[in-house]
Amino acid sequence: MSSSVLLLALLALMAVAYYAGVKRAVSAAGGPAGIKHLHSLPGYYGFYAALWAGLPALLLLGLWASLQDNFVLSLVMAQMSPDLVSGLSDGQLSLLVSDIQNLARGNIVAGEVTPAIQAAAADYGRLQDLATLALWVLALASGLGGLTLAWLRIAPTLRARNRVEGVVRVILVVFSSIAILTTLGILLSVVFESLLFFQKVSVIEFFFGAEWSPQIALRKDQVGASGAFGAVPLFAGTLMVTLIAMLIAVPIGLMAAIYLSEYASSQVRSWAKPILEVLAGIPTVVYGFFAALTVAPLIRDLGEGLGLDVSSESALAAGLVMGIMIIPFVSSLSDDVINAVPQSMRDGSYALGATQSETMRRVIFPAALPGIVGGVLLAVSRAIGETMIVVMAAGMSANLTWNPLESVTTVTVQIVALLTGDQEFDSPKTLAAFALGLALFLVTLILNVIALHIVRKYREQYE
Amino acid sequence: MNKPFTPSSASNTGLSSTGPGGDTGPDKSERAGRRATIDIVNASLGRRYRAERRFRFIGMSAVVIGLAFVAILFADIIGKGYSAFQQTYIRLTVDFAAEVIDPEGTRDRAVLSDANYLKLARDALAARFPEVTQRADKQALFGLLSPGAPQQLREMVMADPGIIGTTREVWVLADDDADMFMKGRSTPIDIQRGAGLASLIPVEGGADDQIQVLSTANDFSDIMSDLDDFRTEDRVDATSPGAQEELTPEMPSHLVAINGGLVKVQQATSAAVIGTLIKPLATATDAQPGQWATMRFGTPENDRRLKDPVVAWIYDLGEAGDIEKRFNSLFFTQGASREPELAGIAGALMGSFYTLVLTLLLSFPVGVGAALYLEEFAPRNWLTDLIEVNINNLAAVPSIIFGLLGLAVFINFFGIPRSTPLVGALVLTFMTLPTIIIASRSALQSVPPSIREAALGVGASPLQTQFHHVLPLAIPGMLTGAILGMARALGETAPLLMIGMVAFIVDTPTGFLSPSTVLPVQIYLWADSPEVGFVERTSAAILVLLAFLAVMNLAAVLLRRKFERRW
Amino acid sequence: MNAIAEDITRMTGAMTADDLAPLRDFSGTVGDFTSPQARMVCRNVDVHYGDKHAIKNVSLDIGRNEVVAMIGPSGCGKSTFLRCLNRMNDTVPGCRVRGRITLDGQDIYDKQQDVVPLRAQVGMVFQKPNPFPKSIYENVAYGPRIHGLTNDKIELDALVETSLRKAGLWDEVKDRLQQPGTGLSGGQQQRLCIARTIAVSPEVILMDEPCSALDPIATARIEELIDELREQYSIAIVTHSMQQAARVSQRTAYFHLGDLVEVGETSQIFTNPSHKLTEDYITGRFG
Questions:
Q1: Residues 49 to 78 of C: which have CB under 8 A from any B CB?
Q2: E-assigned strands of B21-121?
Q3: Which of A151, A246, B230, C144 sits at 20 to 30 Å (Cα–Cα) from A8?
Q4: CATH of domain C2-282
Q5: Cα–Cα dist B197/B217, whole Å
Q6: With an 8 Å Cβ cutoff, is B556 touching chain A?
Q7: Structurally, how many domains does chain A consist of?
Q8: ipTM for the complex?
Q9: Which conformational region is residue B459 in: left (phi greater than 0), alpha (psi within -120 to 50 degrees), or beta?
Q10: What are the tens digits of pLDDT across the range C196-235?
């Protein structure tokens, strides 16, 4: 809470600095009449002062807020008597840390409160208070210092506008580099945790093992502590659900796009297209609910009627609903691609006496094929990464099967299963989720890069 | 068939065309060949138009199938969810007895708050059904009341302690089982009017509440056919047909409503049934055709949480107007709960609100700034190319990956508390940022260069040009993109599961740092709950979510229409 | 840009009172619009795009073994008229055609008349070369394939070769028939499109400014080709270039704002036009 108060205080200081800067500039120019002698408009001097007052302090605040907790904790742990800390597993250690934190914040504590923990908690609280106080002092000092500096520097010859614009440009550059930082952050986080995972489980077992049962013992001495981390059943399950989804989405989406762009009257198109697009706007959790509570029981009953043994969480149900979800994705991409084929191709074909469907099948479709393939690849990447439908409808059991009526599990389902619920962070179980995440990220990344490249090349061809 | 382009005629035409200064008119064989061409075309027309119609039909089917999916999806969810906007209440005459609530007479709020309101509610219900005396029956009867009912009484007393010692009529919350029955979701019910004259005969040697119902018409054939079905499924021993047979709880239940009472059928022949009175008769006279009825509850009693005697009590309450469905305001004011009838979406809505506000505050300025730089200032080099490719790829990265990012970086590295709108908003910001950047860039692209040239021409700096002239023109397009990005963020579930927003949180969040959940995650949690009552809540929550999304998308469309400009 | 769309925008957008002034003097086509050996006969043709009256009461014949050139300022409706002759206007929404157009005595706008055989008989070559994104061979084979004109691969090969020869392209492409047609030069592409049209052995070939996207050398090549093709086909050509009309055509029709102003022997039109508008156009007063 204290940091948000400080944030407000700094913003207030910036407002003050703005007015001070404007005033200072006007008086330095010899009153309102002399404004034309200033290099920049007075407002720029205001912004100049505000940036000096606020920016360093805000950066300090951001840095401090993100690092204070870890820093204080490491200090506290370093001060604790070694016999209390040594010999603890990582999990127990993190439990101890949260006990200390809870005690210091006056929350309910899970473990037993020993005097040592009490002392640590007091230590922790004291250090936190100290750190917060230091932050306040430093932030306000840098703010006021910046304000004074700006005050002193403001003169009619100061190129305030250029300075302010320079800062704004830097900020814009930082904003645009966030995209790269995000990718970097994703890569670093999944790669780092995956490396930890592959220290405990061999890469070969992970990518080629056929058994997946990430049982993890709560205590070291429990039986079956290691678990099996062969991800092949997950990959197979993901592939099967994706395949089913594509079998639904590609023909329907493609044919719907063709019909709407080539055959339907403009009235039909004007209402049918938005309605189909509605499917794209529905949150995936809704599809998951639909799959689990409506489609899966329906398929099971249907299967029973035909004398088939259908699992209540069949791959078919999840794949079917995922296919429905992807229909508008495929159809709007195909629509774009088909419309990008120049009218002259159609004219050329019609002028030879071809019917609409002949033109479509023999000229437009082959011409649009690269774009359509790109779109389908994007759809595949989306299906592979889709989470909620499979979490809710595809089940948890890692079956290695080709039967779509059985229950399968997917990469995303297992990531969710491994990471929801309370567990210590660096057990193989949680780390396995990151290894799966890495595999997922790489596969979808490759698909996306290829697909986007194909689509771009395709567009350039007709531009 | 006479084909025109035999090799000889082809070479013939070839010669005549390449031969310079040949005959001015086409020669005979070529004329014949051309005629034949049109014949071939005409002959194949039927086949080609059939193919055309087939293709067209396939295309139309695809559209129809797609539209049917939309219709089915909405029909299913609306059909499942509409009833959640109503909630069953039971009218009780509650005696706010002073000796139960506040025996000492202190009127101390702590005492009032701790009083045994459950007893008050139960006493009132027991008083309504004096004939229920058995302990097990009483337990079943009390099951009609929601755990929320005592809470309701407590709130009444806390609001006005003056009611202690008085007797009031109170509409209290019914339990979800009763609620489901009232909404017809517990079992399908078939009611058929009796066609014959029914007479009631006490069963000799049977218990007091046993009675036989005879009909002059074939009114019990349904029961017999159920018995037959059951027998053919080998679930009871085959007995000689026509014999009197026992109905079991594994079968659909049959009841006879006659003279104000309810008879639960236990044995049946085609002309008569013997059963237990689960609701007393008003009179024991014969009932005229049409004045009595048989009822069939399609779901076997064993598969139902609400047993037949409880159904009889509900009918009793219903006849007296003491049970009814009212608008379910609790759904919009309550947080999460394990009890379906007490569960609401208020907490999740507030969580979504805080998360989205923060997401917008973070992603919009950053997205617009990044778009501005990339579109207007950035030099074309490998770095900006990389950023460009990056943004396009990030837009297609599975959302769950952003959840992993949030978990590893924000929670574990920066120590931001999990389950909070703050960490949720950070994750959603990174997720929606590419969308907003792409939309903002295309909005900037649609501003014609002449505007920039004009501004630069009067001596504005590049930044002034952007901020004074280009941005104001591009901002509607950017806002449209932002709204669509927010709509996507509002419906997003998977990454939020990773960062602990799945926790069961009862309290409505009060800020960016209080543990909270969001609407789609609430839907996910409810969808997982075993109680039937949660199905309709989930569907209703989905309807609310879809309504919000519809409003946001509509706003984006209207915004686009209003500010759409042609240069 | 699509020639039709161009015509429409020019007609609707750029019409001013001055443009309309000559129209008030207009009193029917000057010259003989009939042909002794008429293959296509158009009588009183009117075309509307929505509210716009694009072609007004035009009558014109296209005879055997002749090239009819249609000239006129931009937006005069010559492309629109051309596209009526094989019903390419059917694909333009809101376009209505009235009047009578016959091919060998058969009304092509008759309800019984199917566009597929019509277009097989009346082929068309467009302003911009539009080869399909397929191989050279497949481009030419496309028409015969969809219509089922050949029985086997040998016949098809022969037909492709004949067509390419007729279009004067065979020697240039015979070694690379399987390469994409889009890889050819502009002039070659246009000749490929002509070969594609010939492959269906039409009776009439419509050409909509076939050289406007080509360089002078390619243009000369196409003009030669048109002259050769005249021996077998009736050809109607829309052109912006009066020189081209003079070079390739036997008869010339001058269109102005949807009216057919004057028709006549090409030599007569260019040396001794009867109508004032024609004369103004030919002498370069406007265009």
A1: 64-65
A2: 86-95
A3: A151
A4: 3.40.50.300
A5: 7
A6: no
A7: 2
A8: 0.86
A9: left
A10: 999 998 999 999 999 988 888 889 989 999 999 998 899 9
